[in-house]
Design a protein that fits this description.
The chain is mostly helical. The protein contains 20 helices and 2 strands.
Length: 421
Amino acid sequence: MDTFIRKSLLQLIFSGAYILRWNDKLRPMELVEIDKQAHKMLISCILWQQAALEIQDPKDRQNLATNIIEGALFDYFYRLIITDIKPPVFYRIKENAEDYKQLTEHVLDQLQPCFGVSLDDIEPQKHFFARMCAWHRHPHNSSLAARILQAAHLYASQWEFKLLAPLNSFDDEIKDIAASFTEKLDALKDLPGMRDILDPHTSLGKFANICGQLRFQVRWTSAPRLPATSVLGHMFIVAVFSYLFSLQLAACQTRCNNNFYCGLFHDLPELLTRDIISPVKLSVPNLPQIIKKYENDELERRILQPLRADGFTALVERISFYLGLSVGSEFKECCRVDGQIKAIKDFETLQQQYNADALDPKDGFLIKICDWLAAFLEAHNSIRIGVSSPQLLEARSRLKENLLKKTLASLKVETLLADYD
């Protein structure tokens, strides 16, 4: 079983909130790494779903999803270490096998303490860090998973580029960057769904664009923070926590994959209502129910119905599953029995009786724990660097209290929080 989650790893994952993108260009807003990673993974989910339609074996479909998710996380951790290296310089390094090997070994050496493992003590492929080492030491850039990740990366990066390009007409690099995006994306148009994503007039293209807009919504707007994380970045943090915690709980492969995408999609409806903090939601009787109904109505009108009308019914079904629309909440455990989605009583029941690939299980309470933990880190890290407020202090205390009351089998939440005093 993977047992590697600790404070250093949580902080490493969160550190992407500090990393600025395109910081040598004039920008209309700060563009940060976790926002781009979230957008990239939302696009990768779309491409995975479309590719999965052509794959008969359910195991092969889940293997593809796992390779996409873990490949993205491996690349994200690598990116956190080489953040100061400008992309053109990094690509030049990759062209030289020996230089790239030396850089990769340096990156893995830097990452190893955060995972608290030694490769001498674990079997290959039995631990997340071992798989990450193999991914970087023996890349397979022509695999379907790698090509999907490349397409999603390019789309999300180009989306950001289009925001800043009009402000940088004086920059002689802009035309070359634009042409490079076009050339590289054209080479990936054979991927199922890619042409639709690149067309802003299709329902899939509009959905991909809508996902990117979640970076405009800053969380905790009534409580100044640093970094001022967006809804989009928060979704990525929750997704990563959900996946890694699932590994630590020995969740089956399908459950791990479902939990990642559930974490990634869980705040998608907030594009339609804005981020409403918990004290406001709870201050008015029935307000949570009113908000939930409005979110679901707008989700259907603006996203699900257009996709369904254009024939993307499988994608609609998966998004609906991740959002828990048929069981009442994304934070409700569920699985699939005889083709029908079934609500599960609680986490313990899911863990003990339904943790099997064939049942398509998805956590709910685990996702909520990860949601709270991500919010706790948002508050804690801001307070730690000196940007605080009474609301933020109260939120950190409340979130920590909520987390300390919860237990999830072998996942010791109180141990994770012990160093956050």
